[in-house]
Amino acid sequence: MAPRFVARQLSRPTGLGGRIIRSLMNRGNASLNSYAVEQLRLSADDRVLEIGFGGGVALPRPIREAAYVCGVDASPDVVKAATTRFANDVSAGRAEFRVGMVESLPSPDAAFDKALSVNTVYFWKSLESGAREIGRVLKPGGRVVLGFVPKARMDRMNMPADIFTPRKPDDVAAALADAGFDAVEVRKPRGDWGWMTATGVRT
């Protein structure tokens, strides 16, 4: 598949191409999503937000272990697919899926205990605005986990610059700190997995 087609579908999966990309994302991102979800430190009474959930590979565990999960994605097709897949949880009030962007999340202030976003920071209009908006919807003491491929490795993929903005780990961490997050930390698992996470706690 052409890099531009792949980049557009990664940004906002649509139609048959979107279904194919979601399937590929679920396989390719499984390890990163598992690592990121582990760092959420889920509790049974948590209200969890996932931004840009795509193929939904990270959703089952929070839905199973937390009190409530809200998924927000820019793609109406993705939202529709998740609403169908998790229809029982939606009916029970344990899950909800909405169309939205990180810069303007469709949620009130201090609505969530935990927030997760994996492989989305490349599409944010700015790290600073995204971090501030996540801080707005988290309760004081709420935890955020951002999973991403760092710029040094992303640059090798030659993704279209008008769609992808590779991010340096220090820039992601700085955006969280500037948005009022404390205990900001960049982590990567043992071994050369090629990805890492940035975590922080809302003050």
Automatic annotation (TrEMBL):
Entry EC no(s): 2.1.1.-
Pfam families in alphabetical order: Methyltransf_11 (PF08241)
Residue intervals of the Methyltransferase type domain: 49-146
Entry annotated with the keyword Magnesium: no
Record-linked SUPFAM superfamilies: S-adenosyl-L-methionine-dependent methyltransferases (SSF53335)
Keywords annotated in UniProt: Methyltransferase, Transferase
One of the GO BP terms on file: methylation
GO MF annotations, alphabetized: methyltransferase activity
Superkingdom, taxonomy of origin: Bacteria
KW Oxidoreductase (keyword) present: no
Record's protein name: Class I SAM-dependent methyltransferase
Phylogenetic placement of the source organism: Bacteria, Pseudomonadati, Pseudomonadota, Alphaproteobacteria, Caulobacterales
